[in-house]
Amino acid sequence: MAAPAMTYTSLLSDIQTYADRDDTPFVSQIPRFIMLAENKIASQVRGLGFTKVVTGTLTATESVLTKPARWRETISFNIGTGTSNAQRTFLKLRTYEFCRQYWPNSELTDQPIYYADYNYENLLLVPTPDAAYPFEFIYHERPLPLSTDNETNWTTEYAPQLLLYGALVEAAPFLKNFEILPMWQALYNEAASAIMKEDMANVTDKTGRVQA
User: Fold this and answer.
1) What is the pLDDT of residues 77-132, one digit of tens each?
2) Could you tell me if 199 and 46 are in contact, meaning their C-beta atoms sit under 8 angstroms apart?
């Protein structure tokens, strides 16, 4: 027999069961509780499951680069330089103001050295690229939100308890059940801590030293 797996549909049912409520006003709010939990998880939890890699090519003379969909935080950004663009050169994160002061004339071009958050959707590169450098952009993302059209994602497969207790924490104010909230919050915190502890184990060798 296959092991039970969480889906969006099963999560809707689980939340009703745990909350012991199946009335229409509560049930109609469950998708909102799930959405709020997904946002909280994306903001608070870091781990390989939330890490994505995007590769592409910079556009010469274009200093603004669009961030990937559902981006939440940049981990690193490197470009290919040197012979055949085989050498990886990491760009340095700086503030928008620093970048504008360092390279005030965006029409001048050279090999990029720095990048900044231009706004939530875009990055600013300076100097403005003088060639079509290949790039590798690593970032934390919010997984594709769950819905009737997207029954599963990384969280339902690898961290179902995190999502369940996160949604129950969000439901507690609606239920006005403040006595049970500390228990749900503690279970959510425990699940989040376990995910992040696994992530640290992946970057630490058996002697406890962080890998270079």
Assistant:
1) 999 999 999 999 999 999 999 999 999 999 999 999 999 999 999 999 999 999 99
2) yes
Predicted confidence band of residue 199 (pLDDT cuts 50, 70, 90): low
Can you point out the beta strands (E) in 50-188?
51-57, 64-66, 71-81, 87-90, 92-93, 109-110, 114-117, 122-126, 128-129, 134-141
pLDDT at 4: 67
Could you give the CA distance from residue 130 to residue 62 in angstroms, rounded to a whole number? 9
Cβ contacts of 129 within 8 Å, gap of 6 or more: 58, 59, 60, 61, 62, 63, 109, 111, 112
Residue-wise over 151-165: b if at least 16 C-beta within 10 A, else e?
A: ebbebbeebbbbbbb
Contact call for residues 146 and 11 (beta carbons, < 8 A): yes
Q: Give the list of residues 6+ apart from residue 33 with CB closer than 8 angstroms, or none.
A: 15, 167, 168, 170, 171, 174
Pairing of strands 114-117, 92-93: parallel
- The token pair at 141 is 């993302």
Q: Which residue, 64, 32, 27, is CA-closest to 167? A: 32
Do residues 40 and 167 make contact, with C-beta atoms less than 8 angstroms apart?
Answer: no
Residue 200: predicted pLDDT: 56
Residue 71 to residue 101: CA distance in whole angstroms: 26
Does pLDDT of 183 surpass 50? yes
